[in-house]
Write a structure and sequence with these properties.
15% strand; TIM Barrel
Length: 252
Amino acid sequence: MPRFAANLTHLWPELPFLDRFDAAAQAGFTAVEVLFPYDFPAGEIQQALQRCGLEMVLINAPPPNYTGGDRGFAAMAGREDRFAHDMRRATRFAQALGVSFIHVMAGVAEGDAARKTMVENLKLACGLAPVGLTLTLEPLCPASAPGYFLNDFDLAAGIIAEVGADNLALQWDSYHAQEITGDALACFAAMRPLIRHIQIGDAPGRGPPGSGVVDFPALFRAIDNSGYDGWVSAEYTPGAQTDKTLGWMKSA
């Protein structure tokens, strides 16, 4: 059975943020991820993790830009200085929380200039990342992220190959994979050599496993059979109370 983590940005939205750590631990999770934790002091999050005996697996970059203007996304030409600033801040946050992965977001962009910008930014970020921290790229489907540059798995694989860094890998999400390719299982098999972090949600609608068309029993078997030993993070929209949507964990 895969090792499951809880995405606390999506799950338990009915609870205050810091209470979600307790809810995850009570539900049987031993690891969590938070997309943008920057609104809370790292020390408060550390205390929540320690109190609940949880590991923080992943955060997103860049953090929110409170100074105004566009955020320094990786594929936005002309924002290279902002990207470097954002990555330094995200890295400090990740180190404070013991995080293993930073998901580097591409942002809204298009064309060859965007790809070139992203490759060069990632080369810089990978070179500066401390030992033990892996940067990830995640293709996002147009339904969830209109105009997002990294909306194709082959594009992501090509950028990873061009950057050529051991600490850059693919973050694979079953919801986005199903929406982009129409076959999440085939996509997982094709992309498996590049995958170091997995997230799950059903499609369409990004509901809990079992609410859509993805064959999760088959996917979980494929994950186990592939030798993947990382975290599989539940990143879906629970709709009702989150605790009522966790039946899929018992049958995994």
